[in-house]
Amino acid sequence: MSNSSRLIINCGTSRVTAARVSAQTGSVKLEQIATEYLEIGSVTDDNWIDAVNAALKELVRSNNLQGSATFILPGNQVLTKSIKIPHVEAEKRAQIIAFEAQQSIPYPLHEIVWDSQIIGDDGIETEVLFIACKIDTIESFCAGVRAAGLTAESITAASILEYNLLSFADPEASSDDLVINIGARTTNLLFRNAEGFFVRNLTLGGQVLSQSIADSLGKTLEQAEVIKLQFYNKDNEILEDSTGAKAFTDSADAFMRRVSQEVTRSIVNYRRQKNAPAPGRILLSGRGSQVRGLADFLQSSQKVPVERLDPLEYITLDAGINEGPENLSVLLPQIIGEACRPFVESGAGVNLLPEAVQAAMRFAKQKPLLLAAAVCLALAPWPAWKVFNGKIAACDAQIAALQTVADPFLRDKAAIAENVEKAEAVKSSIQRVEGLVQSKSNWIQFFAELQASMTGAEDVWLDGLQVLRQVEDGVPTYEVALEGQMLVRETVNGTQGIDRDILTRRIRSLIENFKTSAFIVDSKPPRIRWSMLNDGLNVLPFEIKLVVDAAKPL
Question: What pLDDT does 257 receive?
C-alpha cells in the first residue's frame, strides 16, 4: 500500500464502509474497501452509535485495519444550517458565527461540537454553512473508535463531500449541477455552480419507501427491505407479476412524487436565496436513488437531464478490489470526495472532532521529538559541570562581596521606582483633565458636522451614538459607532420594488459625507439590516463605524 494512503470510514445509517485511498493532484486510487451492513429495522437514532461501534470492531477485526482514520457522519446525525454574518476579518469570524448560530439553532453551543464552511462573500455579508453535532454523540462515537483500536484523525459531514468530487472532476464548473444523494434516513441536496455550493438536508430516505411497502403488504420492515432489493434486482422478473407488485409500485410512485416535490421546492428556494439559474443537470447518488424509474420520473418532472453520479470515472482501482462497479458507485462518492479534498481549491470540509482531542493528538505526534530534546537537554550540562565544579566556591565568595556593595543601590532603586510611579499617576490625571477640556469643543464641532451630513442626505436619522476606545500594541484607537435608520419612500411589498443597490449607495454616500469631518479618517464596512423591509416597513436600519483621528480625539 502507498505510504501516503488514508483510511476513510463512512458511517452511514444502514452500513459502515471503510476504504483506504491514496490521492495526489489529478489522481485517486482505491486500494482497499470493506463494508459492514447494519441490521435494518433495529437501528434507531438512539442506538445508532452502538450499532456503528459494533460494525467498526468487526471491520477492524476482519480487515486488519489500524492507525488513524477520517470518519464521515450521515446527515441525520448532524445539524446543517446556512447563516449570514457581516463581513469581518478572519480572526473575528468564529465569534460572529457562534453568536449568529446561537440565534438560529435549537441547542446551546456548549452542548454541541461545531465547525463552519464559507460558501459566499460579497464584501458586505458572508454566507456560512454551519455544521454541528451533539457533543454526547461525538464523545460516544470517539469512545467506540478507540475501543475498535483506531484513532479519529478528523470527523466530517457527508452532506458537503460530493462538492469536492465534482470540483475534482470539473474545476471550472462548466455546468450548474444538483446532486441528490438519497440515503436510508435522509436525502441531501447539493447545488453546485461556478460561485460555490448550497446544501439542503431532507428527512426523507429509502426507509420511507421500505416502511410504505411494509404497511401495504403487512410485512415487517426487514422483510419489506428484502422485497424491495429483490424487486430492483435487474435479473428479477418474478415479483413484477406477483399479487403484491401493484402495492409495491404504488408505494414507489408515491415515494418518487414526494422526492420530486421536495426537489422542486428546494430549487425554488435555491434560486431565491442565491439569485442563480436552475440547475442544468441532476446527478443521483446513494442507495435510495436506485428506485426503478426515479431517474426518468425526475427528468420528466424537472425538465433537465438526470444521470447517475459515478465516482469510478475519476479513480483507479487496485487489482485486489472485488466489489462490483454498480455497488462501488453507491459506496464511494462521499469517500472519494473526502479523499480528493486537499487537491480541490476551496475544498469543502469540516472537522467535528472536539478541540481537546485535536490538541491531544497534536501533542502525541510531538512526544518523540520532546523526549529526544529532553534527553539531550539532560546530558548537555554534564561536561560543563565537570569543568566548573572546582570554581563554585570562588564564585560564591565573589557573589557575597558584590551583594554587600549592591545593597545601598538597591534601596535607592526602590525609592526611585516609587517616586516614578507617583509621577506617572499625576501625569495621567493632568492628561485626562486636558483631554476633557479639548474634547468639549471637539464634540460641539463634530455634532455640527454630523447634522450637516444628515441634512444633506435627507430622510436619515440617528438612534444611537457610542464612542469605542481601545489600545492596540500600545497605540490608542478611537471609533464612533452610529446606529440609525433611513426612510424608504418607495412602496414596500416584501422586498419587491426595492432596489438594494440604490439604498446601499445612499448609505455609502452618507458615510463619505461623514468622512469629510476633520475628526474622521476612515470607516468600517456598514452593516445594513434588510429585515424591516422584508417585513413591509419603510425604514432601513443601519450601523456605521467611523475611525476617529487619534490626534483629534473625542
Answer: 92
